[in-house]
Amino acid sequence: MREPKAVLFFLCLLLPLLSCGSRHDGDEKYFLISANLQVPYWQTAGAGFIQEAQSWNVRADFAGPETYDPKAQLEAFRKAVEQKPAGILISAADPDLLKDDIDKAVAAGIPVLTIDSDAPSSKRLFFIGTNNYQAGLMGGHRLANELHDKGNVVVFTMPEQTNLKERLRGYRDALESHPQIKITQVVDIKGDPRVAFDTTTQILGKEKGKVDAFVCLEAQAGKEVASVLSSNGVKDKVVIAMDTDSDTLDWIDKGVIAATISQKPYTMASLGLQMLDDLYHHKVAPLDKNWAEDSFAPIPAFVDTGSVLIDKNNVESFRQTNKTMTGASK
User: Fold this and answer.
1) Which of 15, 172, 201, 271 could serve as a FRET partner for 303 with CA atoms 20 to 30 Å apart?
2) What digits encode the pLDDT tens for the residues 171-194?
3) Bridge pairing between strands 127-129 and 29-33
């Protein structure tokens, strides 16, 4: 009679291990709300999100506007909340616009994490993404080296985004020790890369106010600047880009873009889903508490996924890894 009891005891010990991969149920659905579905950066994030969901056998929806449109992103977020998901990741295109809706979602018991671009004044639980200030410092130091400590710089950005503000702050601080490098113009591209193209064209057409470098704080402007410089046969300008659009990488190969700063959108989205899943199964209470001010909080305030400088030395290895991880054609 002892043998059956021993077997039963063994099965009781084994059962939690056998069931750990099937703890998920049909009610679990997670959302990633991007700032612009068409940007390759967000397609990479989407790949990380969907692949992680498949590994957990949970449902996932990658949503957001087809172009940069903060109001459309808000509508996508509201539609996601209506479905009462297990959790939402969102990159805040306009933090002020999203704040109230993020707060309502968290108050309703839906964990919301920000990735890439934060909404720090909202009740989102925490932020996963690049330390954007450090990314700006990295770019600023490379810019100073490329300019040999002297020159005028034009910056392309979208000033309302918290992440881009931090990048610009990093650049400014990096250039403080290089007083002969001056940021002479900061241009708001308003999510439209044509603004970068047109502005660069206008700058090249002016005889006065010489510009020596172009800094692009978001993903789309770099390739536009490079295209204008190349078509005009201009070879004496420094371009520091952001992110790893395939065209941006091609312009690095051609020597028109000196370097770009690679974030880790795949990591942000993949890790974000893991953390949402854990929050769903191991709930923190109250969900809308300001955990950042709690010295014994069960969750972090910020998860830094890092950034890497890409130039001619490592651009090809990046391409190969990107293709393996996301199935990208280039």
Assistant:
1) 172
2) 999 999 999 999 999 999 998 999
3) unpaired
303 neighbors 274 (Cβ within 8 angstroms): no
CA distance linking residue 129 with residue 305, whole number of Å: 5
Mean pLDDT in residue range 242-258: 96
Tokens found for residue 98 = 């999203």
C-alpha dihedral sign at 172, 244, 223, 97: negative
Tokens representing 79 are 């539609």
Question: Is the per-residue pLDDT at 14 higher than 90?
Answer: no
Return the residue matching tokens 């992110």.
Answer: 243
Domains of the chain and CATH, by start: 26-130+264-299 (3.40.50.2300), 132-262 (3.40.50.2300)
Q: How far is CA 20 from CA 17, 56, 57, 59, in A?
A: 5, 11, 12, 18
| 286 preceded by a cis bond (ω within 30 of 0) | yes
Q: What is the DSSP string of 262-304?
A: E--HHHHHHHHHHHHHHHHHS--SSTTS-GGG-TT-SS-SEEE
